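A further point concerns the way the authors explain their paired sequence and structure data. Since the whole study asks how a given chain folds, the encoding of that fold should be made plain. A single example would do more here than another paragraph of explanation. An entry of this sort, consisting of the sequence and the corresponding backbone structure tokens, reads as follows:

_____
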Amino acid sequence: MATRRTYNQNCPIALGLDVLGERWTLLILRELVGGPRRYGDLRAQLPGIATNLLAERLKELQDAGLVDRADLPAPIGRTVYSLSDFGWRKVLPVLRSIALLGVDRLAPVDDSGEPGPVSPLNGFLAGVLLPFDPAAAAGLTTTCRVDIDGRRFEFSVDHGHLAAARAEPAVTITASAADLYTSRFGPTDAKRKAALRRIDFDGEQRDIDALRTALSL
């Protein structure tokens, strides 16, 4: 295994980059925000990463306390990776800040007002991660599942913080990536409202209302 590089500076930014600054590291963490993932799931969503490099990055993130590895019992019998509790607290603000910087660089809407290529992951980032309001979720404890174009994301809200899903979902959101993106970044108020109406929320109404407030949906 290659020797991990370091800036050798006693500075919080340099020390943070010693953990997160390697290529692919933040994208691996991005994938784990949606819930536990198998090694093969990560490889499928990170085209171009060498299998030995993915294994190396995961090991580094485990050593840093940001990622947990679990071997599920039979009959499932598979290894999954997930963000640790420490990872949820420390990684989310970093990912949100970088996503806010990059969201304006996404492919622009076309002449019909529909977004350009939008992946399920981008729909999750636009519809959940970026708009999450900790103040609005201060008293909220719930678990949510989001099904986006056939891909599933799960998380919980724990008194103003996003965290790992720890129970069956109280609310399930079903939407297309395009509608989640357009509901947030559509070119007109009418298009944003139309996209929002197409997003389906399932659960007790009080849970739905609280979650929609926290996500500004």
